[in-house]
Design goal:
This protein is of the alpha/beta class and 329 residues long. Helix content is 41%, strand content 14%. It folds into 2 domains: 155 residues, 3-Layer(aba) Sandwich (Rossmann fold); 169 residues, 3-Layer(aba) Sandwich (Rossmann fold), CATH 3.40.50. Strands 7-6-5-8-9 form a 5-stranded parallel β-sheet. Strands 2-1-3-4 form a 4-stranded parallel β-sheet, with helices on both faces. Bound molecules: phosphoric acid mono(formamide)ester. The site of phosphoric acid mono(formamide)ester (CP) has 8 residues, from helix 3.
C-alpha cells in the first residue's frame, strides 16, 4: 500500500476545500478509503503513519470530527494532539504565521476547525501559507470538505456510482443555534463534479455565498451534471435518490443573531418528515452530517427509520480522513 500512496503524489498537499483537488485525486482518496475500511473490518493493521503527529486545533466544539480524526491517526500508528485556542498562545494573540511555523517543526500535519463567519477560512489559509506540513480543514465558515467526502463514500456504497443520481440538499428550520453554511456549500461544489445532479432548496433569506453558487453551476457543467436552486422545500425531495435536509444560518443575508433566529423560526414547516420522504424514489436515502435537531429538522420516524444512513455516514468520516492523512502526511 505504501507504494501506491507514494505514487499518488499527494504528500504535503493541503486540503482546505475539495475544489483544490482534481477529480482523479479525489477518486484516489475514495479508493484508499474503501481499502482502509475493508482492512479495518478484516482486522488487517494499517500502520502507515508510525511516529507521525497530527495537531488538531478546535476553535469550535465537535463530536464526530475530533473523534474520527483522533481515532484515525491512532489506527494509522500515529498520534493526534487535541488543541484549542484557550490552551494555546493563540489566546494571547500569537498569530497564524508563528503557530504554523512552530507546529511544522514538530509534527507532520495541522488540522483546524474554525467556523466563525468571515474569519475561519482566512485563518486556515494563512496557516497553510506559512506551514511546511499539510493543513487539513476540519471545517471552516466556507467549507466542510471531510464531511462531503464521507457523504460521497456513503452514497457510492449504498447506490453504486453516483453518476446520474439526484441529490436534494434542503434547508431545515432549527433555531437552537445558527449553524454554518459550510456543509451545503461543500455539497453543491463537489457532488456535481462527480456527476451527481443537485437540487438545492432554501427560503430566499438562506442563500449561500454567490461565488460558491456560481462555482457549483460551473462544476455541474464540467461534470455533465445538473445544479438548480429552488425556494420550494419539496423540490429537493421529488424523485430524489438521496436527500440531505439540514439547517444553516441566514449568514449571507444578515449577521444579526437575533434576526437570524427570527428568520429560522419563520419557516417551521421546512422539516423532513415521512410525507416529504414519500416524494422521493423508493430507495431514497436520508442523510444528515449530525448533530441533528430531532423534532425540528427531522422527525424521529425518519432519522431512525429504514431510509436513514446517518450512522454509516458518520462512520465514513473515519475512513475518508484516514485516507486523507495517509495520502498527505
Ligand atoms: N458533522 C460534524 O462535523 O460533526 P461534529 O460537529 O460533531 O464534528
Amino acid at each position: 500500500m505504501h507504494d501506491s500512496i507514494d505514487a499518488a503524489g499527494l504528500k504535503g498537499r493541503d486540503f482546505l476545500s475539495t475544489q483544490d483537488w482534481s477529480v482523479d485525486e479525489l477518486e484516489t482518496l475514495f479508493a484508499l478509503a474503501a481499502r482502509l475500511k475493508a482492512d479495518r473490518k478484516a482486522g488487517i493493521p494499517t500502520r502507515l503513519l508510525e511516529d507521525k503527529t497530527l495537531y488538531m486545533i478546535f476553535f469550535d466544539s465537535s463530536t464526530r470530527t475530533r473523534n474520527s480524526f483522533e481515532t484515525g491517526i491512532t489506527q494509522l500508528g500515529g498520534h493526534g494532539i487535541y488543541l484549542s485556542p484557550d490552551k494555546m498562545q493563540i489566546s494571547h494573540g500569537e498569530n497564524a504565521r508563528d503557530t504554523a511555523n512552530v507546529l511544522s517543526r514538530y509534527g507532520e500535519a495541522i488540522a483546524i476547525r474554525h467556523c466563525a463567519f468571515g474569519e475561519g477560512n482566512e485563518y486556515l489559509t494563512e496557516v497553510a501559507e506559512h506551514a511546511s506540513v499539510p493543513v487539513l480543514s476540519m471545517q471552516c465558515d466556507v467549507y466542510h470538505p471531510c464531511q462531503i467526502l464521507a457523504d460521497y463514500l456513503t452514497i457510492r456504497e449504498k447506490l453504486g456510482s453516483g453518476r446520474g443520481l439526484k441529490l436534494g440538499v434542503a434547508w431545515t428550520s432549527a433555531p437552537n443555534y445558527v449553524r454554518p453554511i459550510s456543509v451545503p456549500q461543500s455539497l453543491i461544489l463537489m457532488m456535481p463534479r462527480l456527476g451527481i445532479d443537485v437540487t438545492l432548496a432554501y427560503p430566499p433569506e438562506f442563500r449561500l455565498l454567490p461565488d460558491i453558487e456560481e462555482q457549483a453551476q460551473a462544476n455541474a457543467a464540467a461534470g455533465d451534471a445538473r445544479f438548480e436552486i429552488s425556494h420550494r422545500f419539496e423540490d429537493a425531495f421529488e424523485d430524489a435518490d438521496v436527500v440531505i435536509p439540514k439547517s444553516w444560518g441566514p449568514l449571507v443575508h444578515t449577521r444579526d443573531h437575533a434576526e437570524g433566529v427570527r428568520l429560522i423560526e419563520a419557516y417551521p414547516d421546512w422539516r423532513c418528515d415521512a410525507n416529504r420522504m414519500a416524494l422521493g424514489k423508493d430507495h431514497m436515502l436520508y442523510m444528515h452530517p449530525l448533530p441533528a435537531d430531532r423534532g425540528r429538522e427531522v422527525t424521529n420516524e425518519v432519522i431512525d427509520g429504514p431510509q436513514s444512513v446517518v450512522y454509516d455516514e458518520a462512520e465514513n468520516r473515519l475512513h475518508v480522513q484516514k485516507a486523507l492523512m495517509a495520502l498527505t502526511m
